[in-house]
From TrEMBL:
Similarity section: Belongs to the EPSP synthase family.
Domain Enolpyruvate transferase: 14-420
Residues binding 3-phosphoshikimate, per UniProt: K23, S24, R28, S168, Q170, D315, K342
Entries under Pfam families matching the protein: EPSP_synthase (PF00275)
Organism for this UniProt entry: Clostridium simiarum
Name this protein carries in UniProt: 3-phosphoshikimate 1-carboxyvinyltransferase
InterPro entries in UniProt: Enolpyruvate_Tfrase_dom, EPSP_synthase, EPSP_synthase_CS
Enzyme class label: transferase
Subunit details: Monomer.
């Protein structure tokens, strides 16, 4: 299904928005939350397809889940020691976080399974997680380090010290989960800091985990079940922030959004570009920092994003690139190679689609450059999304600066992370399904 977004644009005044829970934390609330035997509630659980994928797999492993009102899920876990020992085929669909975090769990718990995924996930690199798990003593089978991957019941995990060579929270999390489940000690040194929701959730549930700079040490621990509140998804909020900034005279307030410092770099960068954004009412919920984000329409100037910040805005780069396209000057985002191995090759998606819209964007020696233009685009364009949710939504935001029609292909892919998007996007945009 495609959508057409045409010339007519709307301003939004003082709109108050509550968003579904953050996708990264939702995966962890199921996988880490259910390691110990017990009952707990998850509040503000999102209906995104990726999170439903993890939920279905956890149910196959033996976890019971009951949906209540207001996006609350009640979980009853038999404890990882009582999970099914031969889980059969586990379909991870499009979700990289599901497959990589689960590999840690299955390996640590010696559960036999075959992990599969859709066409996009089957092309994504898994060596980055298979290799360190094997070093730890895991017995994993795959051909060319891609899906399908078989886990066995013959892993003998041992204590490990590991230096990360790729900046990936998914890999770091898989190792921490494997060690926790197998009651081993692990020390991980990150090459660049990545999102730390696994460390925060393990600590919240009682793990003996310490973080000192880029070193994470986890000692044998027993977790306790606790209710988990999931803050609004900052990566979905990014699109609404983008719409508000690029519209002529709008203001919105997004309530109780995740503002963990490893995820809110996007906000800091926009503020440095001149965006009118304020973060207020900060509080801690289930170990994570939450706040209200107030945005008004703004004129932006170009920015340079340094390589150590890139992992912390990795999912927001499509949105940031679109904002850079309407900023004064040339923006550079350093060290963007990881974009090539996301749900699609996002580097190509950004450069090709911006070029289609008449905006100069290019890749040089690991960095992404975008030359900003002033005013509006004035041509009919068709955005090739390669079924990548973040490319689709970033270019839907771009349409607010197109006087003609912007067609977005395969819009249904946005259900991967933000199925409710139309409810919010249609406040700013005139959208027709075709
Ligand atoms: C995620 C980590 C990031 C991010 C992905 C979610 C996570 O991937 O892009 O959307 O929840 O740990 P990498 O670990 O591959 O950087």
């Amino acid at each position: 299904m495609d959508i057409n977004i045409n010339g007519f644009k709307k301003n939004v005044h003082k709109k108050i928005i509550n968003l579904p829970g953050d996708k990264s934390i939702a995966h962890r609330s199921l996988i880490i939350g259910s390691i110990s035997k017990g009952n707990y509630n998850i509040y503000n659980f999102p209906k995104s397809e990726d999170c439903i994928t993890t939920l279905e797999i956890m149910k196959t492993l033996g976890v019971k889940a009951v949906y209540g009102n207001n996006n609350v899920i009640s979980i009853i876990s038999p404890g990882v020691e009582n999970f099914k020992k031969d889980a059969g085929i586990l379909n991870c669909n499009n979700s990289g976080t599901t497959v990589r975090l689960l590999l840690g769990l299955l390996c640590g718990a010696n559960i036999k399974s075959t992990l599969i995924g859709d066409e996009s996930l089957s092309k994504r690199p898994m060596k980055r997680v298979i290799e360190p798990l094997e070093l730890m003593g895991g017995n994993i089978k795959s051909s060319e380090d891609k899906l399908p991957i078989e886990t066995t019941n013959t892993s003998v995990l041992k204590d490990m010290k590991y230096f990360m060579s790729v900046a990936s929270a998914q890999v770091k999390s898989a190792l921490l989960i494997a060690a926790l489940v197998a009651s081993k000690n692990i020390v991980i040194k990150e090459n660049l800091n990545t999102r730390d929701h696994t460390e925060i959730m393990m600590k919240y549930l009682g793990a003996n985990i310490k973080v000192q700079g880029d070193i994470i040490s986890l000692e044998k621990s027993i977790l306790t079940s606790r209710d988990i509140y999931i803050p609004g998804d900052i990566s979905s909020a990014a699109f609404l922030i983008g719409l508000c900034i690029l519209s002529e005279k709008s203001s919105i307030s997004i309530k109780e959004v995740l503002i963990n410092s490893r995820r809110s770099k996007f906000i800091d960068i926009l503020i440095s570009m001149g965006a009118n954004i304020e973060v207020e009412n900060k509080l801690n919920k289930s170990g994570e920092l939450v706040g209200d984000i107030r945005v008004t329409s703004s004129k932006l100037k170009a920015v340079e994003v340094l390589s150590y910040d890139t992992p912390n805005i990795i999912d927001e780069i499509p949105m940031l690139s679109v904002l850079a396209a309407f900023s004064q000057g040339t923006t550079v985002i350093r060290a963007v190679d990881e974009l090539k191995v996301k749900e699609s090759n996002r580097l190509n998606g950004i450069i090709n689609n911006l070029s289609l819209c008449g905006i100069r964007a290019w890749y040089e020696k690991g960095d992404l450059f975008i030359e900003g233009k002033s005013g509006y685009i004035n041509k009919d364009v068709t955005i090739e999304t390669e079924k990548d949710h973040r490319i689709a939504m970033a270019f839907a935001v771009l349409s607010i600066r197109n006087l003609k029609t912007t067609r977005i292909k395969h819009w249904q892919c946005t259900n991967i992370s933000f199925p409710e998007n139309i409810k919010f996007f249609s406040k700013f945009l005139n959208i027709d399904y075709i």
